[in-house]
Every structure is written in structure tokens, then in C-alpha cells.
Design brief:
seven-stranded antiparallel beta sheet; 50% strand; 203 residues; globular; mainly beta
Length: 203
């Protein structure tokens, strides 16, 4: 990991990322991310990031991580995972977020004309107050042959075909994990993350 992304209009003290022994999926520590509500002007973010990646058209991307989202809040419109291109303006890329109803969804962030991917019919809400394994598979393409699949604890909750790259020559070179955005305007969010893996082969 190469850095933190912490943004908040109410001051950096309200958003933070730290290692904690409060709970862990395996081992002693997990990552704890806290993000204040969105104020309508400046993004609220609390995540870690890794740069220097190279995923291009035709590649497969596999991600696995364990997430614990604290309950007691309405969590639609929080973002959990971003795969981005730093060479394009506004760093567009496929993102995983919770849509209305707190089910997983994906957009091609900051690339407004691209199709949003929605959860399959009957998909469960994203679990809270427990560890849940999130697995993501992307087949990278700027056309209709792209694909995204998402599993929660081994259950497929999203499976869509369509654009997964902004442009044919786009290179995804950065991954962010945590509360990559809290778009909710009323409540702070707390998320724990553990056992993260990224590969070009199935995990």
C-alpha cells in the first residue's frame, strides 16, 4: 500500500484510516475507515490505495477482500472499491458501491455516459455487523464484451456485460479500498477491511 486518501469538508479529524485490534478477520489487525457525511460540495473519503498497477484491455482482474460494515446507519451510496486510471482526467474507473436498498452496484466512475451495473434480481442486501467476503471479477473492455461479476460470501450478486474500461487504451494503474466515498448526506460510516488480494487470475 502506498498511501491514504482522506477527504472531508468538515476537517480531516472527522475522517480517518488506521490499523486496529478492535476486530480482525484473521490475525491481529484490520483496517478501520471512518468517513463523515457528504456535505454536497467536497467528497468524503477514507481509504488506502495502491498505484503502479497495469491492467489493460483484454485482461481479467480478480479482487477479494473481507469487509465489516457497522450497522445502525443507512448505507446506500457508499463506495467500497475503485479501480482507476490516473492518466485520465478525474481518474475514471469501475467502482463498487451500495445502491438504494443497500445492494451492490457498479458505475464507471466519472465517465457519466457508461452503463451502471445493478445487482441481480433477488440479491440480498450487503450484510452489516459481520465479516463478509467480497469477490470481484472484471473482464476489461471498452465495448459490450466487458463483464463484471461480484460475489458476497460465495453468492453471486452482480453479473453484467458492458463497458468496463473508459477507452480502449486505458490502463488501470490504481486500486483504492475502504470508504472510497461516502455520498450519504446524513450519517457517518465505519468500515473494517481485512485480507485483501488482487490478481489477474481467479482468487
Amino acid at each position: 500500500w502506498q498511501g491514504l486518501e482522506i477527504e472531508s469538508a468538515t476537517g480531516l479529524a472527522s475522517n480517518w484510516v488506521t490499523l486496529t485490534t478492535e476486530r480482525a478477520h484473521t490475525g491481529t489487525n484490520a483496517l478501520k475507515c471512518v468517513a463523515a457525511p457528504f456535505d454536497g460540495r467536497r467528497a468524503s473519503e477514507a481509504d488506502i490505495e495502491r498505484e503502479g498497477l497495469r491492467f489493460v484491455k483484454g485482461d481479467d482482474v480478480w479482487f477479494s477482500g473481507w469487509f465489516w460494515l457497522e450497522g445502525g446507519t443507512e448505507s446506500s451510496s457508499i463506495f467500497l472499491w475503485d479501480l482507476e486510471s490516473t492518466s485520465l482526467r478525474n481518474t475514471p474507473g469501475r467502482r463498487l458501491f451500495l445502491q438504494n436498498g443497500e445492494m451492490v452496484a457498479s458505475d464507471l466512475g466519472k465517465w457519466w455516459t457508461a452503463k451502471k451495473f445493478r445487482a441481480v434480481a433477488g440479491a440480498p442486501k450487503f450484510p452489516k455487523d459481520k465479516w463478509v467476503e467480497v469477490k470481484i471479477h472484471l473482464r476489461l473492455s471498452d465495448g459490450a464484451d466487458g463483464r463484471m461479476q461480484v460475489w458476497q460470501d460465495g453468492v453471486k450478486v452482480l453479473d453484467e456485460a458492458g463497458k468496463t474500461l473508459p477507452r480502449a487504451r486505458t490502463v488501470y494503474d490504481r486500486m483504492q479500498v475502504g470508504l472510497t466515498a461516502n455520498s450519504g448526506r446524513s450519517q457517518a460510516q465505519t468500515l473494517f477491511v481485512d485480507d485483501v488480494a488482487l490478481s489477474n487470475r481467479p482468487l
